[in-house]
Amino acid sequence: MAKDLMPDKDSQIPTNLRLLILLEEVARAGAPVTPTSLCDALGLPKPTVHRLLHTAETEGFLQRDVDGRSYGPGRRMRRLSINTLSSQRVRTERLRIMKDLAETVGETCNLAAPGRDGMVYIDRVETHWPLRIQLPVGTQVPFHSTASGKMYLCSLRPDKLDRLLSTVTLERRTAHTLTNAQSLRDELLKTQQQGYSVDDEEFMDGMAAVAVPICDDRGRLLTTLSIHAPVQRHDVNGLLTHLSALQQAAARLEELALE
Questions:
Q1: What are the residues whose beta carbons fall under 8 Å from the beta carbon of 54, sequence distance 6 or more?
Q2: Residue 148, Cβ neighbours under 10 Å: how many?
């Protein structure tokens, strides 16, 4: 665990570990962090922290938040986390859990992680039906019009959600897409209260989906697990009859992520 590896403020962090431990602290914080907060957490001199941040930002491991002062995970750090989740042993067990879910529900299931501009599918188990929606691993989908994206958005702190919504265009994908910020906020509040999210033909005509969160040991969202289907077979209400199986699979994936 991060807290077990973190040295006391008064101890000296070996030079060759400083950048790694700084990245670990950024990941542990779960929100953009300032150089001052990193100095306090790590007990390192301010010039050292600024130098490490500059290196990490230049190499793409960190990126500045919209305030220009704080830092969060960058492209390479996000890719590192996805590759770690996709390591062979973990992925084999993860796919087994997802395959069990797909067979129980009879529909495709996806695992998605938040990227900078949308949710990225990192694993997928297909249904056996010839009529299915093709969204391969690596596909990036919008936050506001997908079940996985809305699950992520409702996990954000209000200030971070405000910043994100102020910088993105709520593109209309179908007649059902929520393109009004207040309507989306209302939907996210509902999602937060019920513990699952839905896509009622909001991303793609003729497709419905339901998603649930997969969280770390501090309750922070890591990824989402979703099931989706053509509405000819299952509308949102039909998919929700499998909510218990979806939640049980997510709980098994959470345990796997924490092993």
A1: none
A2: 32
Q: How far apart are the first and last CA of the chain?
A: 11
User: How many of the other CB atoms lie within 10 Å of CB of 103?
Assistant: 13
pLDDT digits (tens, 9 = 90+) for 68-115: 788 988 878 877 776 676 666 677 888 899 999 999 999 999 999 888
Cβ contact 121:110 at 8 Å: yes
Domains identified in the chain and CATH numbers? 2-74 (1.10.10.10), 86-258 (3.30.450.40)
Both tokens assigned to 212:
């649930």
- Backbone region of residue 81 per phi and psi (left: phi > 0; alpha: psi in -120 to 50; beta: other values): alpha
d(CA 76, CA 120): 14
Q: What is the 3-state secondary structure (H, E, C) of 35-93?
A: HHHHHHHHCCCHHHHHHHHHHHHHCCCEEECCCCCCEEECHHHHHHHHHHHCCHHHHHH
